[in-house]
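RECORD TYPE: inverse folding
INPUT: structure tokens
STRUCTURE:
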């Protein structure tokens, strides 16, 4: 989801969702056969908590997050300096009070224009060093699956260890490596599912 972030000055997370196992419209952390719960560094994780540190490592801070009201609230924990714009109010995972596109487009454009003018997003700042980005730091990922057998299959991935009967955990040296390892884990977990029985 962060492909191409390297030359960017800032990142906008448009239409993001709350994390797996959380209340929120279409809440998930990885689609398909992804986790039913997810923690990063001990905190409940959505895809924003996965992507924000990757963007920071490449010198492109998250400046705007849009989605439902709960996503915007959660963004305050992993992108506290970003602006937010809620375009729907969560009723349940599959229901929301939504602004129609004709009413949400204007506020989204205005909020995005304001976000890219934030000092953190400007590429011509005098205090930005020639070498972009911040050094990566280790992150611990802890996904939970719906049953023990996907978790058992994921233990074949190097560095992954059990974490409860349906969960696994691993620590990676930086956010980019952690996200890549997580993708391998969800792919292996998906391959462990039978079409006729899960």
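DESIGNED SEQUENCE:
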């Amino acid at each position: 989801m962060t492909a191409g972030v390297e030359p960017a000055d800032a990142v906008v997370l448009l239409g993001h969702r709350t994390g797996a196992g959380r209340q929120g419209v279409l809440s998930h952390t990885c689609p398909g056969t992804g986790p039913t719960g997810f923690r990063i560094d001990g905190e409940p994780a959505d895809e924003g908590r996965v992507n924000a540190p990757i963007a920071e490592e490449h010198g492109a801070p998250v400046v705007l997050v849009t989605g439902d009201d709960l996503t915007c609230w959660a963004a305050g924990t992993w992108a506290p300096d970003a602006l937010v714009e809620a375009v729907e109010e969560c009723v349940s995972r599959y229901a929301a009070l939504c602004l129609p596109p004709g009413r949400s487009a204007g506020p989204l454009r205005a909020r995005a224009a304001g976000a890219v003018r934030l000092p953190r997003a400007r590429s011509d700042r005098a205090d930005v060093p020639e070498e972009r980005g911040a050094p990566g730091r280790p992150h611990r990922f802890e996904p939970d699956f719906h049953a023990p057998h996907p978790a058992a299959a994921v233990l074949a991935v190097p560095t992954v260890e059990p974490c409860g009967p349906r969960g696994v955990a691993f620590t990676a040296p930086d956010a980019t490596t952690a996200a890549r390892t997580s993708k391998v884990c969800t792919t292996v977990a998906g391959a462990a599912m039978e079409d006729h029985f899960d």
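NOTES: The mean pLDDT is 86.
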